[in-house]
Amino acid sequence: MSFSFYIIKASGEKELFDINKFKRSLKRCGAPTKLIMKIARKIEQLPDIRTTRQIYAFALTELEKANPVLAALYNLKQALLRLGPSGFPFEQFVAKIFNAQGYMIKLNQIVPGYCVDHELDLTAIKGKKHIMVECKFHNRQGLKSDVKIPLYIKARFDDIEKAWHLDPKHGHEFHKALITTNTKFTIQARDYAKCVGIQLLDWSYPRKANLPLLIQKYSLYPVTTLTTLSHKEQKLLIKKGIVLCQDISENEWALKEVGLTARQRQHVIRNAKELCKFTYA
Amino acid sequence: MSFSFYIIKASGEKELFDINKFKRSLKRCGAPTKLIMKIARKIEQLPDIRTTRQIYAFALTELEKANPVLAALYNLKQALLRLGPSGFPFEQFVAKIFNAQGYMIKLNQIVPGYCVDHELDLTAIKGKKHIMVECKFHNRQGLKSDVKIPLYIKARFDDIEKAWHLDPKHGHEFHKALITTNTKFTIQARDYAKCVGIQLLDWSYPRKANLPLLIQKYSLYPVTTLTTLSHKEQKLLIKKGIVLCQDISENEWALKEVGLTARQRQHVIRNAKELCKFTYA
After folding, report:
1. Is the Cβ pair A115, B152 closer than 8 Å?
2. Range A44-69 average pLDDT
3. Do B195 and A158 count as a contact with CB atoms less than 8 A apart?
4. Who among B115, B152, B191 is closest to A196 (CB)?
5. In this structure, what are the phi and psi dihedrals at residue B101, rounded to the nearest 5 degrees?
6. A95 touches A222 (CB < 8 A)
7. Which of B114, B117, B196 is facing A115, going by the closest CB pair?
8. What is the pLDDT of residues A98-117, one digit of tens each?
9. Which CATH number fits domain B103-214: 3.40.1350.10, 3.20.20.70, 3.30.1360.120, 3.10.450.50?
10. Closest listed residue to residue B133, CA positions, set B164, B86, B165, B101
């Protein structure tokens, strides 16, 4: 069957619907081939669906019916966007990524530079390795972090380094700067960062250790991935400091305070546990 | 007469109305003492006026009645904000400031750096003096340009300089970087810029050669200062490339295209000429 129609993207652009691209996105979250074929067939038979948002919502509902864990994985990119509107939950989430890799973390440090003091989102320390981490949170998928961000981080890094070189007593050094964003960096931002030795971490970069890969490797699913919780419940949990699914089971009190019944709590906890067990083949 | 009441600022904050501060703001635009006293007395007798915006609008109307030139000068800060919403008219305006000081200007140059290419808002050249200029336009008065801006300009400057040091054939050099904004820089931005040798130019800095002082010194009043033109007419003029009052008289065609009658055009031209003649005592 040959079938084609235009869809409207989040940016407002029109695009020919690419069924293979759609199937790949389902495959990436681990959906079995049979289920993928079933959902794709349904999409083609629903002439009312005409925006990427509608297609996404439809696929999510179908995955949810088949297996909530698959739905959560399919939901990951949106889940990171939903950590907003402020950047703080994303910072906490990034701290967990470094924790999982054995770093000690300090949030919101004021560090003196040669010219001025600098406020750092995160500092990550493991042995002699010190990383100053800047977190750039965006609320919308289309927003990329541009070259100005690695540029100002470079100047900040230089200023801090200059201060340390002048101070013989300084205890430790920043050996590296790393910038992470929940969306993507522009090509120019990547080129500049690579050239000056700043590490970047975003939704698709670096190719073998980007955000979704690290999330899956260390089971660091944000609570916003859980389709068994409403957006409002997710927000309340984040406010209570519960940012990750892996922290849910030992914090049932938080689910209770959010207003879930005993039965709902058990459902969410089971869901969160299943999700944390999931890793790519 | 002792009189005091609270006013609500643009930021939403409450503040005790300071009649002396208000009088000083009128004095700064050259209003004679008698007129200042008259306006101040009226303000105190109008109990309905309770926001800075209302006080500003009232004073503007009173000045307008007495002398449209005084109104235009009083209007200068708002006039710069009205150059938006895009940053381009502000860039053109800044180009005129450098022109007036004998610089040759290039807008939107792409300059290769060591790591990446950089897009510069403006380059200003006079003899061996080369300045790369970054323009930061804000739509709202309360928005300040923070330290990240001089930080990224510093890194950009370093990157461009590094490329030139490696190229023995390069014709000229950037000896300086300058950043200008229509509002203000934060204290931290000023401290950092001073420390690394970046020049700043904003609404009140440097004290003896800031934007309003340069505007008056070189008669560079934006068309948005003219209270004899509606905001819509001002916008249309800017679209036609007429950014300054001093360019109005030799471009009567533009006023015609904007839809002004012969009589209105003469009124605006006379107004613009009067304003351009005005300089501080």
Report:
1. no
2. 83
3. no
4. B115
5. -95, 10
6. no
7. B196
8. 999 999 999 999 999 999 99
9. 3.40.1350.10
10. B101
